[in-house]
Design brief:
Structural class: alpha+beta
Radius of gyration: 39 Å
Number of domains: 2
Strand content: 5-15%
Strand order of the largest sheet: 2-1-3
Distance between the termini: 95 Å
Order of helices and strands: HEEEHH
Low-confidence stretches: 11-29
Number of helices: 3
Length: 155
């Protein structure tokens, strides 16, 4: 008795054939490299609008392409961009330094106020233990509440 044979039907694409087709890359493929102008800055790419591109040549995979030297206008544009970026970096650093300095001075101020509140609260409690007149009672209790709140805030 003959064995049945699995044959792909017409129009069927086998998975192995698909994998081989996808993995096969021709070593003779070349990629065109273009020099494009984007806002006056040269950009090297494989994809540029036709109106903006200048073809530099084709390159094989693994081959290096020698680019034309930059023009004086391009160098000036790059120098202007570099100086603008440097100015932005300096301004950002100055802002960060100012924020750090402000944070340090705020921390020192809070530390001083904490120490002052603690010492005032200690002396007030010492006075409360010694005794006080009925007329001073409400003012002393209010001052104690105020110093306790200040201690919670700054300590």
């Amino acid at each position: 008795m003959p064995q049945p044979v699995n044959r792909p039907q017409a129009g069927c694409f086998c998975g192995a054939t698909l994998a081989v087709a996808l993995l096969t890359v021709s070593p003779t493929l070349t990629a065109a490299i273009y020099r494009c102008q984007s806002d006056g800055v040269p950009v090297y790419s494989q994809f540029c609008p036709p109106a903006q591109r200048e073809e530099l040549g084709n390159t094989d995979a693994g081959e290096f392409l020698q680019f034309a030297p930059l023009t004086e206008a391009e160098r000036a544009a790059l120098k202007a961009l570099d100086s603008e970026l440097s100015a932005r970096r300096r301004a950002a650093r100055a802002r960060q330094d100012k924020q750090r300095q402000r944070a340090r001075s705020d921390a020192l101020r809070a530390e001083r106020r904490c120490a002052a509140a603690r010492s005032a609260l200690t002396s007030l409690r010492r006075q409360l233990r010694k005794g006080y007149s009925a007329a001073d009672a409400s003012a002393l209790k209010a001052r104690e509440r105020e110093l306790t709140r200040e201690q919670r805030v700054y300590c």
